[in-house]
Amino acid sequence: MTQPESAPGPSGQAAHFRALEALYAAAPINRLFESTLVIPEPGLARIHFTIDQRYFHAGGAAHGTSYFKMLDDAAFYAANSLLTDRFLLTTAFNLLLTKPLREGPVTAEGRWISGQRRVFVAEARLIDAEGEEAARGTGTFMRSRIALAGLPGYRTE
């Protein structure tokens, strides 16, 4: 009796997306911000997370660090999904906070806007449990000298 062949792992673009998701999960900062990254297609990234009282400021809503971190990460990974060899670096990020985030699930959705050589521009928005936008941001990201393949967590196999 022969063993069935195991299904091959993702290749090409899908392998890159899964490797970026693994890189995100391996980042030490995400021990503080429990969240999951999903890259469904080039130029699009979604981060699912839950706001609870650990992230509140004294006024009883999420502190701005939560907004910035998730918006920056979603926009960053949307842009880096288009680049398979190098890690991008955030060079600027503008935020617009439109609604306090209370406890509950939130999705950060990032989309690439422009750039494919040295500088990339991407935007992101936070959507709360009611489906309302709570914040948005736009970032610029520059190609670095850091090879993705050399980073702990980035695995294409």
Automatic annotation (TrEMBL):
Entry keyword Transmembrane: no
Domain Thioesterase: 59-134
Entry-linked Gene3D superfamilies: Hotdog Thioesterase
Keywords: Hydrolase
Ranges annotated as spanning the membrane: none
Keyword Hydrolase: yes
Native organism: Sphingomonas echinoides
Annotated protein name in UniProt: PaaI family thioesterase
MF GO annotations: hydrolase activity
EC number(s) on file: 3.1.2.-
